[in-house]
Amino acid sequence: MPASRIFEICLISLSLAFTSPAAGATETLAIVGATVIDVSESGSGDSDLVDAVVVIEDGTITAVGPRSEVAIPADARVLQAEGRFIVPGLTDGFAALNNQSYADAYLECGVTSIIAVSGGRRGPLATGLEPSPRVSRLESVGDDRGTLDEHVAVLEDLAADGVDVALLMYELTPEQLGALILRAHELGMATIGELGRTSYAEGIAAGLDAVVHTTRYSLGLAPKDMARAVAERPFSNDLKSPKWLYYLWLTELSPHDTRLAEYAAILAGGGAALMPTFSLLHLDRPWAGNPWKDPVARLLDPADINAPADAASGRHTYDAAHQVAYSAVARAQFLIEEAYHRAGARYLAGSATDVWGTMPGISLHTELESLVRVGLIPREALAAATSNFASVFPNWGRRGEIKAGWVADVLVLSEDPREDIRNLRAIETVVLGGRIVGRAGPPDFEEHGD
């Protein structure tokens, strides 16, 4: 579908009131006549249901099936959705939530769950927002060197404080990392690796659930002395720093280099999911549009965004040397990630909002569109933001599929995302835990029974 048509659909949807029923309010809801898209098995399933009925009661999907087989409860509020498409609410696996505007933007974009990253450039996590996507908290362990006992104590304190995901970091040794992964899983926590002193091959072999950022988990491609230097100083904007010398080394790597194919087999075969965070470099790619022209951007204040795009150009305002470097890394990321995908890697979608101009909700859609550009079919990209989280993370629960017994986070779309992943932007209705929270679009509601 042409981009102009998608933009028109978004404008129509956004002209509708953003409704927010009282927190905790529930009703019986039946969505009738739409096609339910199967996102199971990392997007390899194809058991779509045409002319389906989805029944939601008390925040849970209680029935899904053909209209001829599913009874609609007498007290249900019915959404007639013929010609529409139903997918699960989306998850952003690496994102900030700073204020109500961010929460509203996520929901407008169909993001009903986030794994929340806070602190530093991303600012503090806002709590008590209404409405809000579901929040799974992420905190790091291993930013500084320490003993295993010290790291375990930090991990256990985080678990006691309700943290759901442990980001295991650069200063952890292989022995420490393996022990922390085991302890995190015992505590019901998922694990994501962003590693330095431990190689990614070692981390994946130790049982990490996921690794994050192409530019980081590709460190295993680099010469060992370069990798060690990056581990010692992983964050810098200086183009002569170890991090940037490594990034620029990646830009010179041939996609035909045998090291790339060998390393791709390690990443794809080890069991951990990859979270590329393409959106961090999206504005540095030639096809990127101006994100401030997205209808959802009206909800956002540029002052809240780290390194926001220029409102007029839609581009960064880096100096010439940095812009050349960022653009080169953006090209290299795609070539490298294409190799990982060809090797059979499994993916999770995370936008890395709100660093380097990434924006809540909007950047998850650019993330999914980037996954398709490196070779995933649209259904696989959709799975990366829905069902894959439940299959990768041990504590995720029943979120991310349209199935009886699963959480009722549901999107109704006016266009088919199986044909074009950009159609995922054509959201007409967002259902969060059984409540309609926005974009109550063209389908008609009616009371059933009388």
Question: Could you describe the 3D structure shown?
Answer:
- The chain has 450 residues and is of the alpha/beta class.
- The chain has helices at residues 3-14, 100-108, 148-160, 174-186, 200-205, 214-217, 224-232, 242-251, 258-269, 320-342, 362-373, 378-384, 387-392, and strands at residues 29-36, 49-57, 60-66, 77-80, 85-88, 90-95, 111-116, 134-141, 165-168, 190-193, 210-212, 273-275, 410-413, 427-432, 435-438, 444-447.
- It has two domains: 3-88 and 401-447, Urease, subunit C, domain 1, CATH 2.30.40; 90-392, Metal-dependent hydrolases (TIM Barrel, Alpha-Beta Barrel).
- The chain is built from 13 helices and 16 strands.
- Strands 1, 2, 3, 4, 5, 13, 14, 15 and 16 form a nine-stranded mixed β-sheet that branches. Strands 6-7-8-9-10-11-12 form a seven-stranded parallel β-sheet.
- α11 packs across α12 (378-384).
- The two termini are 40 Å apart.
